[in-house]
Amino acid sequence: MSRLVVVSNRVADPRKTAAGGLAVALGDALNGAGGMWFGWSGTVIEGGAPGEGELHVQQAGNVKLATVDLSAEDHAGYYLGYSNGVLWPVFHYRLDLARFDADYIGAYRRVNQLFARKLMTQLLPDDIIWVHDYHLIPLAAELRAMGCKNRIGFFLHIPLPPQQVLAAIPQHEWLMRAMFAYDLLGFQSQADLQNFSRYVQAEAGAEELGNNRFRAFNRTVRAGAFPIGIDVDEFAALTHAKEALDMYERMKDEYSRRKLLLGVERLDYSKGLPQRLRAFKCLLERYPENLRSATLIQIASPSREDMGTYTDLLQELESLCGAINGDFGELDWMPVRYMHRNVARKRLPGLYRVARVALVTPLRDGMNLVAKEFIAAQNPADPGVLVLSRFAGAAEQLKEALLVNPYDTDGTADTIQHALQMPLQERQARHQKLLKNIREQDVHWWRKTFLDTLCDAASE
To answer: Rounded to two decimals, what is the model's pTM?
Structure first.
């Protein structure tokens, strides 16, 4: 039985459930035949030589964890620079925020070469390699250049933008050529898959061979949409654990006379937080029956705060929250409760369960698992309502949610009002279908479907 080798920017110990559903799902596969998880150690070596880094190997049960240190120069160029200063904004359709510094791509390739060199020393001939996310797009090409013949798949967790947006990246042709070093490319949605198909045919003259197979650069790659899910049973169990129950009872008691709306995400310009707050303000203006009643709890966890765009976003959110509370708040009611800090994962299910409405309204998102966690945490007898952006990858699957255009402030406010007023029977019917969907296509389905397709693609 082949060993699975997972490669990602950061590594998680699959024995720790706090690492989340992805680590649990990959841990199942890694433990099955004995596997390895490879990535950056999280350590930055000041004064370290660029392109060099010490390899650390430890055993976590049946799984080998192999990690590499990065020099400060490589971390700045590869991680902060190219990954998060170029690829993240461009892949989220924000060309205006991209920083096309010529030095960044050199560091990005240098770190991928470093990872490839270190990984080659750990590989067995029959290993199946599964590379994750935008930090490591060229890794397969670097491995192939070193003689690697293994089956290699790649999964992009963030959106893939249209051809015209991708083509704005300097050296985008190099990135595209690197994609053809994989046997299988996985995307979150059919929209991403269509963008890839149009991109490679327009920019590389790729030939479509049928069954989502494309040939260019003397290589054939298969592509597919594999929407990532959550471990529904694991999250349901968290909902009934002590930490979540304590949170539920405390919040239920404190907000017994309120209609609670909830937003939970990292602080990021892709999440549409200012637009959401403006829609909530519009709700209070257009539907005054929500005054002294509707309360929005918005959790925005810290994220990449050493980058200027995030500082600007933080200041805008704090200004919007202050203005809404100042204009509408009473001594015994604040319409917005804003938290700029992390909430423990074990407590979140209780918060999801007590919410009447979840607002998941990104401007662009690869999938958005908060939407699926909210569904899993609900009481089927009295479920809350999911208001979901049509620009989240999850919208392709979760059609029974109330879909909104987050750029349409009035329309989003009207939809939130619909959610707050939705009769019990309709809420139950929508939730039943949503829950069925996330159970059928959970994170274990995602993992198995991708790996089965990778084996088929490699044999072709």
So the answer is: 0.95
For the question of residue 365 being annotated catalytic, the response is yes
- In the set 365, 431, 442, 444, the catalytic residue is 365
CATH class of 4-229+443-459: alpha beta
CA distance readout (Å), 126 to 5, 168, 441: 10, 38, 28
Q: Which CATH architecture has domain 232-440?
A: 3-Layer(aba) Sandwich (3.40)
Neighbours of 254 (CB within 10 A): 12
Residue linked to tokens 């200004």: 319
Length of the chain: 460
Q: Sketch the domain layout of the chain as residue ranges.
A: 4-229+443-459, 232-440
Residue 393 class from Cβ within 10 Å (0-12 exposed, 13-18 middle, 19+ buried)? buried
Residues 159, 364 contacting (CB under 8 angstroms): yes
- The Cα 25–Cα 448 span in angstroms is 10
Q: What is the pLDDT of residues 277-309, one digit of tens each?
A: 999 999 999 999 999 999 999 999 987 656 667
pLDDT number for residue 460: 73
Closest CA to 361 of 386, 338, 397, 325: 386
Instruction: Specify the pairing of strand 63-71 against strand 151-155.
Output: unpaired
Q: Convert the pLDDT of each residue in 94-110 to its tens digit.
A: 999 999 999 999 999 99
pLDDT digits (tens, 9 = 90+) for 355-388: 999 999 999 999 999 999 999 999 999 999 999 9
Q: Residue 92 catalytic?
A: no
Catalytic residue selected from 13, 28, 101, 157: 157
